[in-house]
Amino acid sequence: MYAAELVGVTKRFGPVLANDGIDLAVARGEVHAVVGENGAGKSTLMSILYGLHRPDAGEVRRDGNRIVLRSPTDAIRHGLGMVHQRFRLFPGLTVAENIVIGAEPVRNGRLDRAAANEAVAALSERYGLRADPSALVGGLPVGVRQRVEILRALYRDAEVLILDEPTAVLTPGETDRLFEVLRTVAATGVSILLVTHKLSEVLAVGDRVTVLRQGRVTGRFTASETDADELVNAMIGRSLTPPVPRRARPPVGDPLLEVRDLTVRDADGVARLSEVSFAVRPGEIVGLAGVAGSGQRELVDSVTGLRGAVPGVFLAGTPVLAGRDPRVAYVPEDRHGRATAPEMSVAENVLMGAQRDLASRWTLPRARVRARARDLVDRFSISAASVDTPIGALSGGNAQKAVLARELTRPSTVVVAEEPTQGVDVGVRERVHALLRTARDEGAAILLQSSELSELRDLADRILVLYEGRVIAEFPGDATETELGRAMTGATG
Amino acid sequence: MNIFEWSFLAGVLTATAPVLLAALGGLLCQVAGVFNIALEGQLLWGAFVAVVVSDLTGSAWTGVVGAVAATVLFSALLSGPSVALRADPIVVAVGLNLLALGLTAFLMRQIFGSGGTYSSPDLAGLPDLGELGVDVPVLRDQSPLVPVALLLVVVMAAWLTRTRSGLRLRAVGQHLDAAQAVGLRVSGYRHGVTLVAGALCGLAGAQLSLGNVTLFSEGMSAGRGWIAVVAVMLSGVRPYRLLLACLLFGVAEAFGFRLQGAGLPQQAADAAPYVITLAALVLAAVARRRRRSYEHA
Predict the structure, then answer these.
(1) Closest CA to A170 of A339, A340, A422, A400
(2) In terms of domains, do A129 and A250 share one?
(3) Most exposed residue of A73, A161, A324, B142, measured as fewest CB within 10 angstroms of its CB?
(4) How far apart are CA A305 and CA A23, in angstroms?
(5) What is the ipTM score, two decimals?
(6) B51 lies in a domain?
(7) Measured distance between the N- and C-terminal CA atoms of chain A, rounded to whole angstroms
(8) What is the pTM of this model?
């Protein structure tokens, strides 16, 4: 008997068949990975299991019994818990309050804080999930917030725990810790459904794997008996093209981007970057590694001109311009904040920055704007219902391709990319990498910041490691993850 | 003029009470994430109904009960459309404020036969605490609703931090989706706070028309509901800070009365509370910006 089963689940949204007769069964105490590209139907399926959507056909079973889920409340009552990709936490409440809310201990009509703190401490202890019960959630690092979400589900006696892309927001270290926790939790008999598109994670932590493509199950595997190639095949229906070999020829020419003794202080006078120096030459990709908060944000903002005309940053030999230096193409990490205006259309979003080229004397002809957008949509194979669709309605991968379409068609010679493949599936990732390689081959100088070491190793000619605002090490592009990981924690030599 | 005279402090409390009661309602809404700017209209409506019911029945307490009940109903006009039908709460609230202004003026003519100001010997005002045997200098000349308002500050603070429903209210206000995801009946809480705010505005109105004075005149809320909104914004949704913000307004109004006594033009004295409110808003905005620039660095 399975802890949770989805049997013949079908769900249609208008013309889109999101789930098409999906069967999925999770055994007790198992870590079951659900993988697939964006839009393969993973999220819909999990939403059905958590009572957020109702299936058009098929049913949900718990311990072999059919259950009907009308809301998350029903799901919680049936022992289902979910850790959402965008955390559902209350920043102004404490850790303990966030965990017990909805099932608070009460004594004499009053909230029993002592009991709440005790219960949370006991859970923390039991599952090895450390979190201070009285800390305010708003001030906690992302990894700890995620622990709070997991603890909340466990507090509500979840026997089936669904995690939606849990590692998208975590650093490599935090990811490892999460996996340890998941193993501990599973060992107590809780079933875990891990939704992801990172195959290395599936193989590292999963017991079994179900692969979805276009709303159907295209493969079921036992993690220990499969490999990444087999999974990719099931996910995208073909094999990935083998990675392009690194070019042997070293980049030549004067640096297009040069940073000299850059020191950046925050308003309190604390140095966020200290004496950072490096150069990126035409046709070169320089990777930037480091634990989150090591100065990446400050460096990127300095190089793009967003921090103003910072002394020490030179583009093709002249100082960076304040605002947003037009010589820099910038692919920001924050896709629906910095990179796009989510409520504006695809056409308007890809236009931004190029509007002067299309404007006639007084007006911005819509026909020209849309034609240009259609051209970019074709060239970058962005799938959008139309160029008038709000960009926020696109999948993460398509929105990211639109951002790249805008940035890489600018007449810029320097490209700054931050986490360019965060939250996108393998197919898009491959495409993004190809685009960056093409830009490099055409002579762009690229600064690539990524928390995924495999990405840096695939793309970068050199990798700089930031630690506490300093470049503490530089590696060739084929450095091992172990070497890089050690340097990221400040271990030199 | 000695501003530490008992009579001055008593004046401060009198001026503070209606604003504080309305602001407590606004604070409650704010906690649950409902931006309630209909306090002004509800306050005026409460003041009107209190006078009508008191005049008809000859009992001030019946007037208070009537005002509370009628204002709860009135506030349902806000909670219904904005919570259940997802109308823009700002638009609905503006509508309510205008409705209260027009409806009270109209009904006043229908019921009392003339507009402007209504006052009559039949109209029973709330008793002074002195008459009820309270012999504390500051409170002697206050209506019983004044200590009630002060007590409600304490009750509200305890409710929000120490009870289950208080915790849930704060949660609803902070993250709607998350509150839904943990199984809270979100719209129930939002309806609830809007109606409770209506009750508090009813009390505020009754205090204004049967406590501070014993009469009704058109538009007598005179911006107090708006000042309550400002007080909520200044309070950072903390009840004790809300009390301070309302007291600031009370001091300004009482001080205005004194200035008038000292020969300053009435218009200048009347403007005092609003000038102070504006100054407080500017100072708060400056302080907030300064704080933010640290956080964002």
Answers:
(1) A422
(2) no
(3) A324
(4) 51
(5) 0.80
(6) yes
(7) 53
(8) 0.73
